[in-house]
Amino acid sequence: MRNYFKRYPDENGFFGQYGGAFVPDNLKVEMQKIAEAYFRISKTHDFVSELRRIRKHFQGRPTPMYYCRNLSDKHGGRIYLKREDLNHSGAHKLNHCMGEVMLAKYMGKKRVIAETGAGQHGVAMATAAAYFGLPCDVYMGEVDIAKQHPNVLRMKILGANVIPVTHGQKTLKEAVDAAFEAYLKDPENTMYCIGSVVGPHPFPMMVRDFQKIVGIESREQFLEMTGELPDAVTACVGGGSNAMGMFCGFLEDEDVKLYGAEPLGRGSQPGDHAATVAYGKPGYLHGFYSYTLQNDDGSPMPVYSCASGLDYQSVGPEHAMLHDKGRVDYVPVDDKDALKAFFELARLEGIIPAIESAHAVAYAIRYAKEHPHGSIIACLSGRGDKDIDYVYEHFGLGENL
Ligand SMILES: *Cc1c(COP(=O)(O)O)cnc(C)c1O
Questions:
Q1: What was the pLDDT predicted at 115?
Q2: CA triplet 319, 321, 327: central angle to 5 degrees?
Q3: pLDDT of residue 59
Q4: Contacts of 293 by beta carbon, 8 Å cutoff, 6+ apart
Q5: Which residues line ligand 1 at a C-beta cut-off of 6 Å?
Q6: What confidence score (pLDDT) does residue 172 get?
Q7: Residues 222-246 pLDDT 10s
Q8: C-alpha–C-alpha distance, residues 365 and 139, integer Å
Q9: Could you give the C-alpha distances from 393 to 159, 263, 398, in angstroms and in order?
Q10: Nearest-angstrom CA–CA distance, 305 and 265
Q11: pTM exceeds cut of 0.85
């Protein structure tokens, strides 16, 4: 893994055999323009210093590294959390949205466009667009709009246009298609901002680079707190952006074990989970090549997780490569373990995690039990306020878990 960041991705956006830009020619041209602008602008002194200032004064970075004394005393080992729930707007997503919208601004774009499923990416985009004073169109399936009322309101209060997508299943996939279509109508003046380390090149690279700060801070903070590196690091994997950010800080430290916690939902049967690396196979989706969960005819398989931010049929191409290289282990965590961790963290540490993040906490607990002298950092990708109604309705106060 020496010189990792100089080697991956290559100039065409490949991480080994994964990634690339498998899109129609007109879109490919636009993606190349964004890649070119990213290389030209993102390393300049002005861009870097403005982003640093934003991270400190607007987002409240660095976010804390927190030692969970009560959780560790109960399970053994030493469990630490990287507190991305304390990043402004309550999750890690703002890290890449601020970067993407700032790039749009530097490129002279007049508007930003995004798709959203559960609404978390939409809220982070609306926040970033308000900061930079750019209009923001968020495409969202009608079914999701009905399910995610608070996030829809947040986006509207922040001044974004939420555009309902009314065809097909009326969920994330149709929203992605509609957003790309709108983008292609006016690529000169608009920027399409993707919500994770997925999609065609250069997005998996750009989003990863903007999320790297999570891993860089974690490594420094852990060293300062303990004088050593952690034995292990874990993060939940939906598209894989918080995990990639976290892993980036430790990829070149071969002794630090890396674990991606994948959503096993109700179990390993098709349709019951979204554990893409564990149960998927290589294929194409949304313009890139990676592991995917698909039917024999190549159509995307239905997926399920209690965490709506994790139910995606693919995973960032860099994760696919890191799995094949054996650098990261992808471990399934089911709904029940995630919910147990959700309540435990709330009651033992006074922190309500997002259900997505609870998957990483659940794996950290599992690791601590098996390694009584080991240390592990879990990325607490977001706060759980958005989940309390859902959790209470389906699992009460956790009595029967
Ligand atoms: C969106 C989201 C995720 C999943 O996205 P990744 O790209 O896999 O990080 C995880 N946690 C929270 C809190 C989210 O909002």
A1: 95
A2: 80
A3: 98
A4: 270, 274, 276, 279, 280, 300, 301, 303, 313, 314
A5: 91, 93, 120, 196, 236-243, 309-310, 354, 356-357, 381-382
A6: 85
A7: 999 999 999 999 999 999 999 999 9
A8: 37
A9: 31, 20, 11
A10: 4
A11: yes
